[in-house]
């Protein structure tokens, strides 16, 4: 029997863009047909985008998705296709349609509905009951949807019904541990069933979630036949040999660096680009302080959008060091972005003068420090409004976890690229970006982020000789405690038993718990860990649990 050729659409299908998504499917189907594919495969909820959330409560939206499926079915002569869509039958199902011969030949419904982490499927969908199989050129092809492959039963039912190949369409968000887990699960399903597995995943940023693609081919013996690159849009060609249930990739794109830092950086770049472009902004604006967080944010913005769409503003105060001034200017000039220096002293003094009658008798404290940050926030928001450029917040996960950030000050911004990136990871990413720059240009001393900014002690520069460690434990220690408490959900007793100082643990955990109110008011940012603040980690603001 001849090999079955598949065309796998590892592409972005934005949420709500029903007409554009339909047109993209039509374009890719034509390309698949021209390449003599027997089957074109598209991601989970291709037509609506994932996750469509409460758009699924609108009958007009569901009707538009159904109409698009009819349009696509009419264009399948000579080509079969599997396309994800929301299927409304009184109740709504997360569905995949098998299109062939000018019609919707079959529809299957997602059986396992995830309701953890960022997933909220049970709010919108009813579960399916059976695994569907289509016969294509003599090959029995089962098709499942995302979570269905993470549990053994749907794949086992497909194999019992005679499947030789299982095609899984996905909208599986990226985090640092995801790809290893995927491969383990898919390998286990293949070994349990004897079926080869095609795993196709969505690409793109959607609000706080980033989808990486990272599609996989798994042979019937559980071995990995091919790995698609992360964050690359591509039509992936594959051949399935039913005689030995093996898969072969045909000229898949490759990336030179698959390291953790390279993939994480690509995730952040994709998150920034898609958030800005999908929401129709001309460009971005950020405060460039001369510190490492804003320096990395600037590099990400330029890599995502190009220098012509990025504006950086340095806003010095009497406490701003010459190192900060020099580092910000050097980086802005090297990256070629629009750059301005606006001193905040006059505006800050005006605030202090106005407030002095009500401040009398009270010593200076963090109020005055926070007022500096809020003065900068007011100015940045005014520039954002006037020039139509979205303001990027530059804070990191370590700061957001313990509340080391000023509401309506440095927390101002509509998108926060580093929101889910710990400070220690900020350093690693910055060093990696410089290494990548030097490798690209062949100049060992070339850089994107000023080395002096990376090596300096971190400081908010809100008073003389201030460093972050005046207020926080060293970041290596802080981030280790935070990861155990946030990602691993360990108790304080467990963290202390692991060897961390008792008083430090109690202090850090208290800061995390009492600053939930700040995080509720923070900008969205790309989820890149297994436990991000926002839709994934939702703790009560008011709570007696300590």
UniProtKB/TrEMBL annotation:
Q: What class of enzyme is it?
A: ligase
Q: Where does L-glutamine bind?
A: 116, 172, 178
Name the residues that bind deamido-NAD(+): 370, 399, 518
| Catalyzed reaction equations | deamido-NAD(+) + L-glutamine + ATP + H2O = L-glutamate + AMP + diphosphate + NAD(+) + H(+)
Q: Which residues form the CN hydrolase domain?
A: 4-242
Sorted alphabetically, which Pfam families does this protein's record hold?
Answer: CN_hydrolase, NAD_synthase
Transmembrane stretches in the record are none
Q: Which residues bind ATP?
A: 287-294, 394
Q: What PROSITE patterns does the database record attribute to this sequence?
A: CN_HYDROLASE (PS50263)
Functional pathway: Cofactor biosynthesis; NAD(+) biosynthesis; NAD(+) from deamido-NAD(+) (L-Gln route): step 1/1
Q: Which SUPFAM superfamilies match?
A: Adenine nucleotide alpha hydrolases-like, Carbon-nitrogen hydrolase
- What's in the keyword line of the UniProt record? ATP-binding, Ligase, NAD, Nucleotide-binding
Q: What is its EC number?
A: 6.3.5.1
Describe the family membership recorded for this protein in Swiss-Prot or TrEMBL.
Belongs to the NAD synthetase family. In the C-terminal section; belongs to the NAD synthetase family.
Give a short account of what the protein does. Answer: Catalyzes the ATP-dependent amidation of deamido-NAD to form NAD. Uses L-glutamine as a nitrogen source.
Q: What is the name attached to this protein's record?
A: Glutamine-dependent NAD(+) synthetase
Q: Which organism is it from?
A: Dyella acidiphila
């Amino acid at each position: 029997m001849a090999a079955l050729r598949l065309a796998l659409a590892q592409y972005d299908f934005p949420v709500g863009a029903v007409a554009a998504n339909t047109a993209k499917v039509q374009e890719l189907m034509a390309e698949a047909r021209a390449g003599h594919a027997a089957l074109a495969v598209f991601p989970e909820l291709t037509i609506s985008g994932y996750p469509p959330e409460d758009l699924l409560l609108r009958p007009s939206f569901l009707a538009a998705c159904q109409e698009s499926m009819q349009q696509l079915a009419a264009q399948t002569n000579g080509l079969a296709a599997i396309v994800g869509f929301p299927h409304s039958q009184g109740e709504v199902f997360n569905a995949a349609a098998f299109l062939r011969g000018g019609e919707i030949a079959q529809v299957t419904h997602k059986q396992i509905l995830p309701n953890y982490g960022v997933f909220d499927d049970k709010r919108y969908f009813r579960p399916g009951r059976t695994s569907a199989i289509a016969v294509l050129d003599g090959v029995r092809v089962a098709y499942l949807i995302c979570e269905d492959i993470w549990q053994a039963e749907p794949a086992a039912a497909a194999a019992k019904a005679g499947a030789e190949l299982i095609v899984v369409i996905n909208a599986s968000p990226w985090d640092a541990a995801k790809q290893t887990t995927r491969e383990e699960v898919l390998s286990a399903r293949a070994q349990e069933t004897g079926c080869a597995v095609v795993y196709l995943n969505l690409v793109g940023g959607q609000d706080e979630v980033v989808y990486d693609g990272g599609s996989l081919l798994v042979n019937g013996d559980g071995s990995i036949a091919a790995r698609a690159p992360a964050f690359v849009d591509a039509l992936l060609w594959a051949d399935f040999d039913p005689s030995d249930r093996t898969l072969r990739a045909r000229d898949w794109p490759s990336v030179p660096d698959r390291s953790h830092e390279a993939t994480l950086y690509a995730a952040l770049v994709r998150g920034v680009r898609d958030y800005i472009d999908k929401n129709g902004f001309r460009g971005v604006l950020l405060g460039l302080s001369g510190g490492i967080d804003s320096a990395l944010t600037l590099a990400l913005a330029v890599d995502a959008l190009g220098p012509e769409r990025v504006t950086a503003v340095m806003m010095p105060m009497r406490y701003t060091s010459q190192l900060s001034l020099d580092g910000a200017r050097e980086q802005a000039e090297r990256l070629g972005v629009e750059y301005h220096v606006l001193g905040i002293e006059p505006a800050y003094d005006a605030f202090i003068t106005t407030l002095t009658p009500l401040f009398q008798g009270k010593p200076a404290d963090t109020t005055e420090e926070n007022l500096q940050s809020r003065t900068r926030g007011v100015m940045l928001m005014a520039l954002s409004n006037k020039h139509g450029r979205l303001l990027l917040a530059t804070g990191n996960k370590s700061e957001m976890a313990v509340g080391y950030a000023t509401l309506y000050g440095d927390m101002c911004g509509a998108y926060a690229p580093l929101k889910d990136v710990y400070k220690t990871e900020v350093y690693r990413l910055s060093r990696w970006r410089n290494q990548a720059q030097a490798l690209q240009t062949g100049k060992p001393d070339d850089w994107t982020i000023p080395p002096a900014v990376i090596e300096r002690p971190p400081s908010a520069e809100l008073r003389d000789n201030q460093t972050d460690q005046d207020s926080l434990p060293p970041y290596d220690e802080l981030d280790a405690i935070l990861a155990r408490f946030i990602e691993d959900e360990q108790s304080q007793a467990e963290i202390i038993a692991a060897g961390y100082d008792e008083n430090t643990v109690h202090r850090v955990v208290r800061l995390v718990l009492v600053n939930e109110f700040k995080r509720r008011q923070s900008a969205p940012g790309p989820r890149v860990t297994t436990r991000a603040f926002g839709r994934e980690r939702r703790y009560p603001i008011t709570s007696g649990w300590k």
